[in-house]
Amino acid sequence: MTLQLPHLTLSFWDVLDIIATAYIIYLVLIIMRGTRGMQILQGIALLLILRAAAQYFHMWTVFSLLNALLIVSGVAIPIVFQPELRRALAQLGRAGFHEGRQQPYDAARLQELCATLGTAATVLSRSAIGAIIVIERQAALDEYAESGTMVDALATAELLLALFTPRSPLHDGAAIVRRDRVLAAGCFLPLSEALSLDRRTGTRHRAALGITEQTDAVALVISEETGGIAIAKDGRLEEQPQSAQGVSAAVQAALVATRGARRRRLTFVDHARNIMQRVHLANNGLDKTKLRS
Fold this sequence. Notes:
By secondary structure, the chain is α+β, with helices and mostly antiparallel strands. 50% of the residues lie in helices and 17% in strands. Strands 4-6-5-3-8-9-10 form a 7-stranded mixed β-sheet, with helices on both faces.
């Protein structure tokens, strides 16, 4: 099948090629819209316009310089984006091939763990002690656990309070819980750089959002400044009542929530937009940090 146009003959595969290329360009623009990555795209577009102008006016020295800049940009961009691309591809692989591999929480253990977290959170809140506790679900958190100190102990309220006591060796970081055990403490977490966040959002809350954007984990965060308790899941933060029963019920609901309509699964576009939103943190060393706010 061919399409006859004046001075142009298009086959079916040519039309399909054009449609696929247009869709890819549209997808890239959708990914970058509203992110700082759009600034990179605008910069590259400006270089291309200047290069075309230099070629039109026969300014060959400027043309050569702009060509060199474009070549350097093509090499530098994948290097700058490498950590974020690696994390996004790993997350896509987990979502596509490993999701659902782990067994669901045992009801009794889950209730006991949630009660423990609720008790610890309320005590920390009343004492104005900042903390962040990440509960692992389907996606393994070994990469983040390795950045801290391995604990591998039964999760109890006393242990969690001891870990986050000010001036203790492991208080300045996140604790990671796997099933009913504290896997590691003092862990580094990635920060969220979502443009919609309030500038006053503290480091702990950004870290809670960051880890839940990149994995399916649930994060329990206690503010050191206000004593407020919040739960982060799927890149969303919800304030919780400062009561052990309320926090316990909220954590349990977050952990056992189905993956249907109640949980919006992150698409490739979501992952890619998160990459673009976080990329500029790598330049100032804030992509991963201990938690001091």
